Batch of 3 targets.
Target 1
Amino acid sequence: MPPGDNSFGRAIGELLALPFVFVGWLWRTSSRWRAVPLAQKNRMRVVGAVGALVGCIVFAAHGFPVVGPEPTAGVAALAVLYLVVGVIGTVRTESLTFDLMSVFWRCALVIGCVALLIFAKLGAL
């Protein structure tokens, strides 16, 4: 290495910046997702859920070569939830004024926070 070449320091700096780049990408993606019309969100959910269910069926048919049956069942259950919410949102486009999945994820966040507070309190006893 020639003197003054700081490629190692530059690589470390880029590795340290990587989480911030990822968070910025997540922020831009969520901003764009909020601008998508509700009917299109529901159609995308249906297509994604069907794709995930097909993937779970293929994993089950091959004897769960990558992961076990429990994680595959969890992914399949979430895909079924997305499928049901997407179909309901697609069929009832004119009557829905809010996103059902955003309500679901906010409720899941609240339940998770309450569970963490309860388990943290039980651990302190």
Target 2
Amino acid sequence: MDVDNLRAAQHGLQRLAEHLATVATTTNRIPADIGDGWTGPAATAMKADLVGLGAQSTGFAPRFHDAAMALRTFADAAETFQTQTLSQYIRRWDEAESGAKSAYDKADRAYDDQIGWK
């Protein structure tokens, strides 16, 4: 697993969350900035759309932040597994395998001695 790619994706999600928060703030401000300077059905529809877009952006920004934090947690766990945990398991496996081979060799020699085979 490429931890660097996970961290790059996390960074991208975090930047997207920040951008969406900025978009939400800007979009929510536009209808008030327009004010009564533009009226009529088109203005009403556009202002309603902007309010809806601002609300969606406000709701989505934290979700992208949460996704970025989840990806960071996953990347940290993957990195720990790759750099620490896996090597510990490999070392323990090698030690167990060596111990088993020694025990087998000892038992084999004992059996050879018991039956008089040398």
Target 3
Amino acid sequence: MGKPATNCRNCLFFKVHDSYEYLEYCINLREVVVLSDEKTPCPQFKEVTFEDLKEILSNEGFLYCVSCGEYIHFEELEKHLGKHTVIRGHFVDDVTSEESSVAD
């Protein structure tokens, strides 16, 4: 998968917030954390591999490219690898919609 900098976005257990990309959810730690340049990965960090991504694709049907901001499927995976940050998807925050203004 190329050699991006080691941070949480390169971790198998990373999910990005569906509305705020500076928030992340760590599946392993089961907590939401703020992503920053100063943040170092936790001891459970596992750099995601092509094999991991293929397994996620077979289980979940899609991945998410953080760099492009779009969901990708198997046939698109190779063009994103090594150039972009590909993760397992978003985590959905049930109360984010409460922050939206209502349109009349």
